[in-house]
């Protein structure tokens, strides 16, 4: 359908298992470009005995059911349009060894017939899926054709759903957020990737590993980026700090459990002011949680990871284009502010394919921050000290190991402006206030919110990340009730000043997010001036599924109703 | 008449290698080791700015403040010095990484990172300042304390020790030595040899804790080590820049260990022959020593046939931290090619 220009999104729902448990794949086609899973299923395909009856139960009357007769289970739904084929048996006729996989192609053929998928587009998609491997393409196309022919002959009813070709947006392609972030990191000049496998972040690291030989090697095949598969997340974080300390660009990627483990190092990076980048591809917590489902439940963790007073820069992409952009920008921010920077994505954005219009080449040169690299540079700085705020912006200068310039022993213990161990009360308090000032100053340099504003300025919705893909549908559902909705997507914490201004301009503001406790709402409450806090209300909901628009829209309407009373 | 200041091979006085005053207990073995580090780095003529001092947490990990004041260092978190060193090594393979850790830092909380740094053959010198107790938290037993050993206060230790040398040899470490903080000549030679080694060099140094475990019932006390230690061989380090005719030839048998930078560690045979190339011989010797409640010191094992962690990466010659933007970011033209390929 994508090849036909139909706005379409696909979501893979899979359990934390390799091949012994069922998976679902949800496809949403929508002329409005809605990308969230819809409210109802129009066409259900049944292939798996384990979920057979549960899936049938949920299907609404009038829907289409396509099923594999070889599962040998009944489909007792006279109120639906039902068609079955012995898919496994037919597939065995093509290739007995591959029957299980080829069976899936028969329903593709049936669907092609039912909703009218263009043959050229279909062949293009199959070619892409099987990377042009001749035999695989032939075998699968044959199964599709057989399926289509049998549907043509066997289906007596008319399909209530068809797709029409649309002008395919020129230059678009499908890509997942993890690969986009991987490419962004490569353009950001990553020098050292350390990683420990964890769903749903592994494909980000594997994306970098995949692209490095093509994009970051010399002509004679020497690499400009080291890759270390660490023994655990603690070590992965330690390597990031080591690389940053030595003057390189180090990064790792993980998910919530990994961040929990990395927390001690995160505090060290904050306190000793060592740059580094960590991507958190959020899955459902707490604990091991639902490892293959999506959530925005790690914002609090990232914002204040580690003991004592800490705060960290968190970049929150909402699209694959932003995964790329924040991928390279994260390193610039890390070196500019000499601190850890988080990229905060989630399973939905990271592992599902999204329509992408292409990645913009970085519009700024690499920013290495305040690094003193020569004796002349050093001489020009009056009263240099590793932790002395000579410019008044909270950011000190640093020198690198190997340079011979003003070396210090970096430490996680209290230190004075020259980096010497100190427990002096005044020295400690002053240092902590400078760190706070440094991060406060950072906020206006970070990506500002994306605002889509109505002239009425009545209801404002503040949201973040992958909610971007459901927000327009949510907005449309709410506007059906006559309300006018403005949108403000937060793209970084600490919060950009424009967010405060957005709240000021609107009568009522909803903070919408995919978690239980309203973590973004909590950040807003903490960072906003006290008089603005009563204007905001939280709508937070999480069940592990990608956000379905109607659920969130109804929750928002409920809160607005409560507020009116 | 002014005093003549002795300079090393790169014309630097020893004072270029010293650090701040120590705040450890007077008589602490760790301070003797700091002295040896200063001596070894000076004698080997290593530019101080090329050395990176790495440590974890504990009494031993505080010592990088007391030596090599002209070198950058990183006093990291408990047990995690190896990972930080790994990250640093990846982006700047040209530095000499000198890690200082303790038995608490390396044998308990940090044992995983110790193991994996060896497995990767990280190019560093890893010094364990081993006293069998957690000094900084007032003398609890650590995991390297021998069964039957007793600290100043409390009951004897009942659990078997983790022998860090045995562990390192089992993991295939290419340079494993044990020494004693008070054996200045032996330790200096081994330290210099470790600095000349390419790859992971582990030196486990018995370093008495004068405050909590220097009573004679403690196997790591000065008194115990002095009477219950057997040296595997005499050790003498010969610099690659030292003319051979200036080197004394020992009277008895000896064997020269060729080191990566061309220097030589000369092992002088004492009572029995010891084959440092055979890991099983080392394990057996360590096992027998444990049974006999003795320490054995010297070069336990040496082999050089493994690539280091950074060599494994196939990295460009320039340290990655020194690369300019054109090496770090694909060009605009390359970007357009990639986008075209995506758009298929």
DSSP strand tally of chain A: 21
Strand content of chain A: 15-25%
Structural class of chain A: alpha/beta
Q: Identify the CATH class of the largest domain in chain A.
A: Alpha Beta
How many distinct domains of chain B?
A: 1
Portion in helices of chain B: 25-40%
Summarize the amount of helix of chain A as a percent range: 25-40%
Number of helix segments of chain A? 18
The top level CATH class name of chain B: Alpha Beta
Proportion of residues in extended strands of chain B:
15-25%
CATH architecture label name of chain B: 3-Layer(aba) Sandwich
| Separation, N- and C-terminal Cα atoms of chain A | 46 Å
User: How many β-strands of chain B, per DSSP?
Assistant: 13
Q: Profile the largest sheet of chain B.
A: 8 strands, mixed
Structure overview:
The complex is a heterodimer of chains A (565) and B (344). With 565 residues, chain A is an alpha/beta fold. Chain A folds into 4 domains: 2-154, Pyruvate-ferredoxin Oxidoreductase, domain 3, CATH 3.40.920.10; 175-356, Thiamin diphosphate (ThDP)-binding fold, Pyr/PP domains (Rossmann fold, 3-Layer(aba) Sandwich); 375-444, no CATH class; 450-564, Rossmann fold, CATH 3.40.50. Helix content of chain A is 38%, strand content 18%. Chain A is built from 18 helices and 21 strands. In chain A, strands 7, 8, 9, 10, 11, 12, 13 and 19 form an 8-stranded mixed sheet that branches. The radius of gyration of chain A is 27 Å and the shape is globular. Chain B is an alpha/beta fold. Chain B has one domain (14-313): Thiamin diphosphate (ThDP)-binding fold, Pyr/PP domains (Rossmann fold), CATH 3.40.50. Chain B is built from 11 helices and 13 strands. Chain B is globular and about 75 Å long. The chains are: A alpha/beta (565), B alpha/beta (344). At the A-B interface, helix 6, strand 8, helix 8, helix 9 and strand 15 of A face strand 2, helix 3, helix 5, helix 10 and helix 11 of B.
